[in-house]
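Hey team,

Filing this mostly as a record. A colleague (T.K.) asked me to run one chain through the structure pipeline before their review meeting, and I want the input and output archived in the tracker in case anyone asks later how it was produced. No errors, nothing strange. Just documentation.

Input sequence:
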Amino acid sequence: MFNQFLNHIRKVDQFGVIFQPKIKYSTNEYKTAMGGIMSIILYGLSFGYLIYSFVQYGQGSILPKITSIQAKASQQSISFENELMSFKIRPGDDNQINPFDPTALILVPFVLPFLNNEIPLGQYLNFEQISFQGNTISIRNLKLQYGDPSSVETEQIIAFVGCKQADIQPPFACANESIRNKFFSQSSNAMIATTQVNQFNTDKRTLEEVGKEQVLAIVDNSTYFQTTNLNIQESSVDTGFLLESTEKFVYATDYYLTSQQIDQQYFRNTFNYDAYLVFQLRIGKLKYYQSIQYPKISEILADAGSIASTILLLSYFVILCNQTLLEKQSLNDIIQIYYPSYKDIQIKKTFYGQIREVIYKGKIQDLEKFKQYQKELQERAEKKLTIINQVYEISRLQFIIQNILRSKEQIRQSHKIGIKLKQFDIPKLINEENLNGNQIIPHSQLNFSTSKLVVIDSQSDSLNNNSRIQQKNLMMRINQMMKILRFQFNLMNQKNEIILIIRIILLENNQLKLHMSTLQYVREIISKQISTLSNPIGEDKKALESEPYHNLQKSSVLLESRCFNDPQLQDKKCRQILSKLIYLINQGEKFNDQESLSLFFGITKLFSSNNVDLRRMIYLMIKEFKDENSMYVVISCLAKDITSKNDLFRINALRTLPYVLDQSNLVQLDRYLKNAILEKSQPISSAALIAGLQIFRISPDFIRKWTNEVADRLNSKYPQNSFHALLLLHEIKSNDKVTFTKILTGLTKETLVPIANMQVIRFIREILNTDELDQQYEKLFIEYLLRQIHKSQEIVIFEACKALCDLKSLSNKDLQPMVQIVTVFLQSSNVINKFVALKILNRLISNPIRRSLITPSQIEPLIQDSNKSLSSLAVSILLKVCQETNIERLLNQIYEYLNDMSDEFKIDVLRSVKALAKNSPTKWKSIISFLQQTFKCEASQEFKKYSIEIFEFIIHEIPEARENAIMALADYIEDCQQSALQLSVLSILNREASKKQCPTRVIRIVNNRLHLEDAEIRAAAVGVLGKFLLHYPKEKTNLIELLQAAAQDPDEEVRNRSRFYISESAAPKEENTPLSIEELDAIEAYLQQNIQEIQQSNEEVLQLEKIMAYAEQNKGKIKKTEVLQELVEEELIQTHESESGFETYKKLFKESTIFCDYGVLRKSSRAQNLTDSKCEYLVTVVKHFFDNHIILEYKVKNTLDNVTLSDVSLELTIKNVNLQFERIVPAKQIQPQCASNILVGLQFNPNLRLVSSNIQSILTFTVNENGTTYQDEYQTEDFIITYSDFFLPIQWFKKFQTEWESLKSQEMSATYQLDYKNTDIAIKELVKHFGFQICDNSDQIQTQNKFHTLLLSGKYLDAKNALVICQIGFQQNIGCVLKIKCKSEDDNLSTNIVETLG
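Output structure:
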């Protein structure tokens, strides 16, 4: 016991040391003189900087940190005991009169408090506040304050008035009138007013007074009035040595003045004196806060430490140098051990360490040969130093000794051999009992674990089978016990815990034969779990008792709810009952009509209580439980709460209101909701905006009236307000994209809070992903997104990066700044930032063109990250961007971390591996090897099923890898324990065997399934062997023997399948020729004609001879299948609004007397809107194409009620000389709410097959409105007749190359330089330009190719086929280069198609 206690104590020791063998006999560290010199220099510099820092700190030369802010103060107060202001006459000539002479006073000062905007008159001379010192007057003992509700607002008035003898007491006397007149007639009567303010001296750490002077003129019959606003500052000074020691100072730091010269009469009415100078002193509304923090000793030490760490970075190079020297010396020592004569070699080196001469036994040796020889010796020495080599050599020595010393006694005796001490005679130096741990055990006594050896014979197979059966039985019994446990205790959350216990048991024992029965051991563990669950203690008991409403009954709660009708409500009790009701509703309890009505009206009575907590429960209850027939009562209560003075009531009422509103109640609450949106309180405004979002789903038109109020909240200083306002404005303008785009344009120029900025970016991304955006707006929005990636807020940066990833119009060069910023986040210490950055990169490389932007070296370190979500995502990205040369290394590295990943990320890795197999088929060996390893790791069935699907993909898509992939799958089912996976593999083998593409080595593995697996798998295995029997005649004899043995299987399905394939192999083969389309048509007609006879007959009635005889009799009546025609008709349906509409147009134009000379209608386009849906006149246009003409059909609808349009015509502007106006059919009259057509005929150049032009249209008409007639016109939006309008996209059944070669017309070609930024954009624009169909999946880009080939096919005016080959390439100095080749049934058409890009 004591030894065990000591062992536990040793484990706690945190000061353990590691044994380090010595390099030489004197030391265990390798040191050099150069290292010593560098140590003195580096540590000396570090210590010197530390001393310098201490000296600076001691002398006070390090400046403190000063932070200043200003804020509006609700109340301030300050007293000035010392002198605040002083006044003296500016010195002049010797005869200058002093107005402050006590014996001849001209000007008398007095100080009056200005209390609550009232002036109580006081004495002139108050010596507590005013003092005379020669020609200087000082003012002190003043108090200023405002904002304190417990006292009056105090300001001070200092006035200089004319002296009155009646108010003067001796020894003071007023000057006579002559002296006074002489004073005011002096050439210069100026007074110097000095105001004392304070500043904090950071060197002396004290406040210092600073006097600021003003020069004021004293003028007779005029008053100078000045308002002085004092700025009060509060300074917090921290002078602590180590900890904080703060002292506060409050003082006037500055002031600002407003002054004016006014008539004396103004203040004569106020003071009853002639005032010459009046000063009003008050406190400013802003208060200044200053924080002064002197440096502490910890900052000095940290600063010195950082500098020292920077200096000591150079020590890395010294360590590297010492390590290199140590390696060289160690290698030389080992070489000298094996080759003692190596010491005799004299090697002379240059200053840079290069060998320049070698001398051995007085002879100069060949330098190159010696270097080669020395390199070989050093390589051998390096191998000798490895621990694996040392263990290997020791093991060889052990085997040699065991072979020499056969008996155990000889080995024991070897421990007694030793050197006898010179001065002591000790017969036994070592106790024999202590030798057992060190003796070499003979090979015959070594206990090798047979489970680790691979023995291929019948006996080992039977052992493996027996252990597998035992293991299955064991797990079945464990599962039975698990079911009993869950049935008894109904505690599903214990399942994972007990399964984990069972797994630990099986892992610890590692085999089925245990000293104690495994099942018995599991029973004991489960019994302990049962006893713990039966008698919970401590936290387990608390967890079981934490369900207060476990046995709650609806009837008891309804009974308790009667207290809602009590005159005196008990708030706490009502809250508890409401909680129980909400619990019952969430548990699915239903209330009948009577219960619902009673409860609802009871809840509404609770509104009489003003308890905040109860009111919140009422709101929750209303959301969960509402009676639609009685909602008017709740709405009136909520309307009352919305106008309440309690903000909490208002907020919750606004949030609850959308749940009870309907169309009839909206109008009466409109004013309340609008006022709430404009409320200054941020929570109330946000609650109103959120309510608007929810009401918008009920009545969008009602919320659209709030546009101005919502737009006003966009510039709110509160983040939530801006965010919610932006969301609601987006909903309001959802049908008006143009207006919302303009709003977003304005928001891009303003500074928004981060959350609103993020939402603006999302809306911009939504708009940019539409094809209808103007290029000017697109450029503006892209520039805005590129600016946002340089912001300081992370959510804004990430959202902008996500938006840029989705833009396909940007080139890789445009996205490089974004990628650089995202890769910076990969180095961040914040795990979330790294994860988001990886998600963005993963999103970016979903487009193959963008993969060149990612450098794998930046992501590879994240594979080893401890966060498995990060490492798994990094793996997925690397698999998509890695080069073919790095695939094998990367897959090996990934497998090391595969077991630590979650199943979700494991499957994501397999998806990337599948894409890798598709993009790099030449690396199939590495991929198959990796997939085989995935079968061995612990993972879900879904994961391994996906691995099998990848094998199936490789078998189908990579012919050279087919055999290896099939054999890998076959080997897997040998160890697979899951029936579903075995069936999947056998299904693949079955399919490949039927194609004669399966190696015959698989037969042995499949045959083993007949002896080891259950009936379902045995039946599938028989199916595989049957396919081999039918398609591999060389193996027929052996396969029949195997199937005959399977025919004796106890399962009926297995027996039937075996007999079926044996009989099939014995039956003679008949050549089955495929049925023709005519025969299929005949079979279909025969079945339709004789369906009842076939259903009633028991004989074989589907005889081909009988069917063909029926076809001969009804020749000409059987409907033939027109495959190509059906396809063409389907394309026409996609092009035109309906087939019947196109035929109607075709018939109308043919019978028209105006347009019958145009010929046959070939093609009609879809209707295109030329006006907005909310305009007063709605105009659409349909383009009809003939051989040499185009008819534009304008449909004009008059949406005005009291307006009739007459003589409606068009003025066209056509910007192509090859397209000319020919004729027009105007509309005579368009009644209100009616529509009519205008037809315009155009003729294009007969030498051209294609023409494109922009069309500008202006409607001209006469308006008749309530009897008033006038001419008017209306301009519609421009539209374009494009080249794609002439073509129908047609998909061919044959390969494109076959169809190209079958066209015997001349091939036309040309080369162009186009303004496309990448291949993806070029493909989309070319398809859009021609309106052709993409053939053979040629829009899929292969990144490894230098250029991309796009194959297109179409039909010109539903008459002539055309094929186009576009070869797209990119050159750095030129851009996009396109080579186009075209073939069609008309050479002129081919020429026109090629020239459309010119």
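Quick notes for T.K.: The first strand starts at residue 65 and ends at 72. The two ends are 97 Å apart (CA to CA).
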